[in-house]
Protein backbone atom coordinates (compact mmCIF):
# COMPACT_ATOMS: atom_id res chain seq x y z
CA UNK A 1 0.00 0.00 0.00
CA UNK A 2 1.12 3.55 -0.71
CA UNK A 3 -0.35 6.92 0.21
CA UNK A 4 -0.59 9.83 -2.18
CA UNK A 5 -2.60 12.91 -3.01
CA UNK A 6 -6.21 11.97 -3.80
CA UNK A 7 -6.77 12.35 -7.53
CA UNK A 8 -9.91 13.58 -9.25
CA UNK A 9 -9.99 10.34 -11.22
CA UNK A 10 -10.37 8.51 -7.87
CA UNK A 11 -13.66 10.21 -7.01
CA UNK A 12 -15.94 7.55 -8.59
CA UNK A 13 -14.14 4.92 -6.49
CA UNK A 14 -14.55 7.10 -3.37
CA UNK A 15 -18.28 7.23 -4.06
CA UNK A 16 -18.40 3.41 -4.40
CA UNK A 17 -16.69 2.97 -1.04
CA UNK A 18 -18.94 5.63 0.57
CA UNK A 19 -22.07 3.79 -0.56
CA UNK A 20 -20.87 0.63 1.17
CA UNK A 21 -19.57 2.25 4.36
CA UNK A 22 -22.21 4.90 4.94
CA UNK A 23 -25.31 3.51 3.24
CA UNK A 24 -27.65 4.55 6.07
CA UNK A 25 -26.13 7.99 6.62
CA UNK A 26 -26.22 9.89 3.35
CA UNK A 27 -22.92 8.87 1.70
CA UNK A 28 -20.96 11.64 0.01
CA UNK A 29 -21.64 12.25 -3.67
CA UNK A 30 -19.08 12.85 -6.39
CA UNK A 31 -20.02 16.51 -6.16
CA UNK A 32 -19.14 16.58 -2.46
CA UNK A 33 -15.71 15.07 -3.13
CA UNK A 34 -15.07 17.53 -5.97
CA UNK A 35 -16.05 20.38 -3.66
CA UNK A 36 -13.66 19.18 -0.97
CA UNK A 37 -10.77 18.93 -3.41
CA UNK A 38 -11.56 22.35 -4.85
CA UNK A 39 -11.64 23.87 -1.35
CA UNK A 40 -7.96 23.12 -0.92
CA UNK A 41 -8.52 20.64 1.90
CA UNK A 42 -5.78 18.03 2.39
CA UNK A 43 -6.99 14.75 0.87
CA UNK A 44 -5.04 11.53 0.59
CA UNK A 45 -5.69 8.23 -1.10
CA UNK A 46 -4.40 4.82 -0.09
CA UNK A 47 -3.53 2.71 -3.12
CA UNK A 48 -2.96 -1.00 -3.59
CA UNK A 49 0.13 -2.28 -5.38
CA UNK A 50 -2.06 -2.30 -8.53
CA UNK A 51 -2.79 1.44 -8.02
CA UNK A 52 -6.41 0.79 -7.01
CA UNK A 53 -7.87 3.20 -4.45
CA UNK A 54 -8.55 1.24 -1.24
CA UNK A 55 -9.06 4.14 1.15
CA UNK A 56 -9.19 7.91 1.46
CA UNK A 57 -9.05 10.60 4.12
CA UNK A 58 -9.45 14.35 4.31
CA UNK A 59 -8.38 17.11 6.64
CA UNK A 60 -9.60 20.70 6.54
CA UNK A 61 -7.60 23.47 8.16
CA UNK A 62 -9.09 26.83 9.13
CA UNK A 63 -7.99 29.92 11.01
CA UNK A 64 -5.25 32.49 10.79
CA UNK A 65 -1.59 31.50 10.51
CA UNK A 66 -0.29 30.45 13.91
CA UNK A 67 -3.79 29.75 15.22
CA UNK A 68 -4.99 26.96 12.96
CA UNK A 69 -7.59 24.33 13.77
CA UNK A 70 -7.95 21.13 11.78
CA UNK A 71 -10.93 18.87 11.27
CA UNK A 72 -10.96 15.32 9.96
CA UNK A 73 -13.73 15.41 7.38
CA UNK A 74 -13.66 11.76 6.42
CA UNK A 75 -11.76 8.51 6.56
CA UNK A 76 -12.99 5.58 4.53
CA UNK A 77 -11.43 2.18 3.85
CA UNK A 78 -12.77 -0.47 1.49
CA UNK A 79 -14.15 -3.24 3.75
CA UNK A 80 -11.93 -5.79 2.00
CA UNK A 81 -8.86 -3.91 3.30
CA UNK A 82 -10.03 -3.05 6.81
CA UNK A 83 -7.93 -4.38 9.67
CA UNK A 84 -4.73 -4.13 7.61
CA UNK A 85 -3.52 -0.74 8.85
CA UNK A 86 -4.90 1.36 5.99
CA UNK A 87 -7.06 3.56 8.22
CA UNK A 88 -4.21 3.95 10.71
CA UNK A 89 -1.80 5.02 7.96
CA UNK A 90 -4.30 7.54 6.61
CA UNK A 91 -5.00 8.97 10.07
CA UNK A 92 -1.29 9.25 10.89
CA UNK A 93 -0.68 11.13 7.64
CA UNK A 94 -3.48 13.58 8.45
CA UNK A 95 -2.11 14.06 11.96
CA UNK A 96 1.40 14.64 10.60
CA UNK A 97 -0.01 17.46 8.47
CA UNK A 98 -1.86 18.95 11.46
CA UNK A 99 1.30 18.69 13.57
CA UNK A 100 3.29 20.61 10.94
CA UNK A 101 0.79 23.42 11.48
CA UNK A 102 0.63 22.90 15.26
CA UNK A 103 -3.14 22.63 14.89
CA UNK A 104 -5.50 20.84 17.26
CA UNK A 105 -7.62 18.29 15.43
CA UNK A 106 -11.35 17.74 15.82
CA UNK A 107 -13.63 15.03 14.47
CA UNK A 108 -17.02 13.41 14.86
CA UNK A 109 -17.49 9.67 15.17
CA UNK A 110 -20.63 7.58 15.60
CA UNK A 111 -21.20 6.61 19.21
CA UNK A 112 -21.62 2.98 18.12
CA UNK A 113 -18.38 2.87 16.08
CA UNK A 114 -16.16 1.49 18.83
CA UNK A 115 -13.40 0.39 16.44
CA UNK A 116 -12.93 3.94 15.10
CA UNK A 117 -13.13 5.43 18.60
CA UNK A 118 -10.33 3.15 19.76
CA UNK A 119 -8.20 4.11 16.75
CA UNK A 120 -8.67 7.77 17.60
CA UNK A 121 -7.92 7.22 21.30
CA UNK A 122 -4.66 5.45 20.40
CA UNK A 123 -3.70 8.59 18.50
CA UNK A 124 -4.31 11.04 21.33
CA UNK A 125 -7.97 11.97 20.83
CA UNK A 126 -10.34 12.46 23.75
CA UNK A 127 -14.12 12.78 23.75
CA UNK A 128 -15.16 16.35 24.39
CA UNK A 129 -18.84 16.34 23.49
CA UNK A 130 -21.92 14.58 22.18
CA UNK A 131 -23.92 15.60 19.14
CA UNK A 132 -27.41 14.16 19.29
CA UNK A 133 -28.85 12.90 15.97
CA UNK A 134 -25.74 14.18 14.14
CA UNK A 135 -25.82 11.60 11.35
CA UNK A 136 -28.75 11.81 8.98
CA UNK A 137 -31.01 10.27 7.97
CA UNK A 138 -30.35 7.52 10.54
CA UNK A 139 -30.38 9.94 13.48
CA UNK A 140 -27.31 8.31 15.02
CA UNK A 141 -25.47 10.27 17.68
CA UNK A 142 -21.82 11.30 17.36
CA UNK A 143 -19.06 12.01 19.80
CA UNK A 144 -16.92 15.04 19.12
CA UNK A 145 -13.30 14.16 19.78
CA UNK A 146 -10.23 16.39 19.93
CA UNK A 147 -6.48 15.95 19.82
CA UNK A 148 -4.35 18.90 21.02
CA UNK A 149 -2.00 20.64 18.63
CA UNK A 150 1.68 19.66 18.56
CA UNK A 151 2.81 22.52 20.81
CA UNK A 152 0.15 21.67 23.42
CA UNK A 153 1.17 17.98 23.37
CA UNK A 154 4.83 18.89 24.00
CA UNK A 155 3.89 20.97 27.07
CA UNK A 156 1.37 18.43 28.45
UniProtKB/TrEMBL annotation:
Taxonomic lineage: Bacteria, Bacillati, Actinomycetota, Actinomycetes, Pseudonocardiales
Gene3D superfamilies per UniProt: 3.40.630.30
GO molecular function terms listed in the Swiss-Prot or TrEMBL record: protein-N-terminal-alanine acetyltransferase activity
Signal peptide: none
Provenance organism: Amycolatopsis viridis
Entry EC no(s): 2.3.1.267
InterPro entries documented for this protein: AcTrfase_RimI/Ard1 (IPR006464), Acyl_CoA_acyltransferase (IPR016181), GNAT_dom (IPR000182), N-term/lysine_N-AcTrnsfr (IPR051556)
Keyword Acyltransferase (UniProt): yes
PROSITE patterns associated with the record: GNAT
Name used for this protein in its record: Ribosomal-protein-alanine N-acetyltransferase
UniProt entry keywords in alphabetical sequence: Acyltransferase, Transferase
Span of domain N-acetyltransferase: 1-150
Superkingdom of the source species: Bacteria
Record's keyword annotation contains Acyltransferase: yes
Enzyme class: transferase
Pfam families recorded: Acetyltransf_1
PANTHER family registered for this protein in UniProt: N-ALPHA-ACETYLTRANSFERASE, N-ALPHA-ACETYLTRANSFERASE 50
Amino acid sequence: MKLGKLRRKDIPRCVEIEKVLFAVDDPWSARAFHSELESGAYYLGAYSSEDVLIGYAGLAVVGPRGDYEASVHTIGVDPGYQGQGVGTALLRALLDRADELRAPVFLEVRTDNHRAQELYRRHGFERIGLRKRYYQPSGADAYTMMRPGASEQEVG
